[in-house]
Amino acid sequence: MALFLILAVLTTAGLVLRQSALRFRATRPAAGSPHPGASFKLADYLRWLTARMKSVFSPAFPVKVWNVFNGWAGAHFPGLLKWIFLVFVAAFFYLAGSGFFFALFFRRGMFGLPLLAHVMSGGLFALGLAVILLWRARAYRPDQAEAAVFESFACPVFKNLSKAFARIAVFWAFAAFGFVQVTTALCSMLPVFTYETQNAIIMIHRYSGLGLVLTGILLLDLALLEPVKTPPT
């Protein structure tokens, strides 16, 4: 359990800081150049990050978030599908928030009404994921050449992968982790497994939940946030 908590905090914080640093770097001019993309100073980054965090608490922030979400969702999920996607996103945020909150602060795990809401949100998440795969899977075929939607994204391991392929890989990784989450949640409710097996299923559920959150952060950065243009080479 302690290993999971340490891994969850470090990987989530590290990924958020990495993606924010990429976004910051893409907005700063390179030395001797009017174009963004190369300059990075820790003090400037911390000031930029502080200003971004302050903007979260401004009255205009919820409106801005809704406008970004509404524009993107309306373009990709027309009509009723947009509201199904909204329910899916809300369920995902509650599942992630409640799951990690109880994992961090309660050794006994989740219980009571939060657990009931967690189970109900899991059902909405499963239905929403099925709808998304039926509606959008064709746009993420591995053989489909798509233009990159986030020009400053770079794969941290395989530098030669195209941006479009990286986005496709993240989408299907998110879908795979979602499938594991739904399957392990259903298996944990069946009275056919031993106590040791149930513990193993819960541990798999926790680690796949961490993978779901990490890939969800990448998808948010790739798909919903405003793209940042890098200078021409």
What is the CATH architecture annotation? Answer: Up-down Bundle
Helix content: over 70%
Report the biggest beta sheet as strand number plus sense, adding barrel if it closes: none
* Percentage of residues in strands: under 5%
Order of helices and strands: HHHHHHH
Which homologous superfamily in CATH is the superfamily? Transmembrane di-heme cytochromes, Chain C
CATH topology: Fumarate Reductase Cytochrome B subunit
Q: Would you tell me the overall average pLDDT?
A: 80
Structural class: mainly alpha
Query: How far is the N terminus from the C terminus?
Result: 47 Å
Tally of helical segments: 7
Tell me, briefly, the overall form.
globular
How many β strands by DSSP? 0
> What number of domains?
1
CATH uppermost class: Mainly Alpha
What value does the Rg take, in angstroms? 19 Å
Could you describe the 3D structure shown?
The protein has 233 residues and is mainly alpha-helical. It has a single domain, classed as Fumarate Reductase Cytochrome B subunit. The protein is built from seven helices and no strands. The radius of gyration is 19 Å and the shape is globular. The model is unreliable at 144-157 and 226-233 (pLDDT under 50).
Summarize the structure.
The chain is mainly α.
Task: Give the helices and strands, then pairings.
Elements: H1 2-27, H2 42-56, H3 61-76, H4 80-105, H5 112-136, H6 163-188, H7 195-224
Helix pairs in contact: 1-7, 4-5, 5-6, 6-7
What tags apply to this protein structure?
single chain, 233 residues, mainly alpha, Fumarate Reductase Cytochrome B subunit, globular, disordered C terminus
